[in-house]
Design goal:
The protein is an alpha+beta fold. A two-stranded antiparallel sheet has the order 1-2. A two-stranded antiparallel ribbon has the order 3-4. The chain is built from two helices and four strands, in the order ββαβαβ. It has helices at residues 21-36, 59-70; strands spanning 8-10, 17-19, 49-52, 82-85. The protein starts with 7 loop residues before the first strand and ends in a 7-residue tail after the last strand. It folds into two domains: 1-41, no CATH class; 43-92, no CATH class. The mean pLDDT is 81.
Length: 92
């Protein structure tokens, strides 16, 4: 996404701030959520993931999602799962 660039400085000679590649990725993600209501993240083929139930069930979050979904004609179903992307590869 950043083509090896380190980022950009806004107002470099006064009260400035640096926009890093991570900041840009976050801004892109927030823009996509604002425009589409969702952010799609595609993982690479053969990435090892673990899928399960959250250890601590987020009751308040689930209640808020239910309330929001009731008012959305686009929502057909909702599932709550925990996904962890692992760093190691499993070789069979």
């Amino acid at each position: 996404m950043t083509d090896g660039k380190a980022g950009a400085a806004v107002n470099p000679f006064t009260d400035h701030f640096i926009i890093t590649p991570e900041n840009l990725a976050g801004m892109k993600q927030q823009k996509e959520i604002a425009e589409n209501g969702v952010y799609r993240h595609v993982i690479k083929k053969d990435t090892v993931v673990q899928i399960g139930e959250p250890k601590v069930y987020p009751h308040e979050m689930v209640d808020a999602v239910k309330t929001c979904a009731r008012n959305s004609k686009a929502t057909k179903a909702i599932w709550l799962k925990l996904m962890i992307k692992t760093m190691s590869r499993v070789i069979f």
